[in-house]
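INFO  loader      accepted 1 record
INFO  loader      residues=453
INFO  predictor   begin
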Amino acid sequence: MEQTKILLEEKEMPRKWYNIVADMPTRPGPPLNPKTMKPAAPEDLSPIFPISLIEQEVSDQRWIDIPEEVLEVYALWRPTPVFRAHRLEKALGTPARIYYKYEGVSPAGSHKPNTAVPQAYYNKKEGIKRLSTETGAGQWGTALALACNFFGLECTVYMVKVSFEQKPYRKSMIRAYGADVVASPSDRTMTGRRIRAEAPDSPGSLGIAISEAVEDAASHDDTNYSLGSVLNHVLLHQTIIGLEAKAQMAKVNDYPDIVIGCVGGGSNFAGLSFPFLQDKINGKDIRVIAVEPTACPTLTKGIYAYDYGDTAGFTPLMPMYTLGHSFVPAGIHAGGLRYHGASPLVSQLYRDGLIEAQAYGQVGVFEAACLFAKSEGIIPAPESSHAIKAVIEEARRCKEAGEAKTILFNLSGHGLLDLGAYDSYFAGKLEDYEHPSELIERALAELPKVAVS
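INFO  predictor   done
INFO  writer      dumping tokens
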């Protein structure tokens, strides 16, 4: 009987996070203070972040210890399994070997607690009472609500309006963990009220929700802001995914030729791929593919520039591939991928040619998700289904070429709270949407006039 599950014991859980900055051939430019246009100093970030996370944000240390208190919480679900997708391989008739790292076994149902837990821990340690944040599809908001509950913090979640309406049970999970969740744009902040006045029917965006959460944190002394993607320290925490996966692949004497993950801001993609990219930087022959929706084509159609991380311009300017901070994507069901920019680390790796990027429409993505569900039994989240679409395309190429390549991807969450999206797909209500070039150009015209090296 061929092995299906590749497991690690709790004692084999990584004790350090991997910081890819130490090995990058080109490091991204520094974040800039939007008022001075000079590199942001720690004091520029301290009104919304604890100093321990700021230190991780700017660190070039290769390995960073995971606190014991964080490991104790991680042990509720980590290490997570790697599965060999035998049934999917058979359904595709491919000689490729397909593996997936399954992060949907966490209490929140996704990879997001990997960073939510340490962020709550470090904030609690520095005396913060409440965290404010944004969420797209609700996975990050759920994870931070869970983590704040574990460490005795209050939590306020600004949820993108279109997802707030599409995914009611994400709201229920957030509330079950004790957090407050509101639709963004809301009437609680100046940013939200302004946007509601200008566009009463705005579906919201992650950029808008970030602005509201940052404004909330900056206006309350006992509150800090917490981000679920994009920033260096967030991607750092997620590398436990790839570190475990490397150990699991070694247990079956295999190693991926291709590593695939979906990309919104970049956290789950980075979490799986960065430990393998360390090998690629050091000469290993491996392809790494980032997959995004055609409705929000940040890497495939954006430009590399300094831009704000939010719509209102509260955050520092970051060097990244962006569609412009005023970009509002269509209300596709992959709410976690509806972000205008890619993380500076992912952006630099793409710029240097160390990773590739693909974009797919949501109809083909849900078709791929259903094939995966019928084959493997797990209903995937719409975000992860973009990675599955790319996996299937690569596996079919292997079939055509007669090549038995090894493909590894990150199934970053289950889709059990996204069944409304599946209902829309089965009813034929989903449409492929490619964001018009003229709207992208209009948003890009509003970029800050700052040169990038």
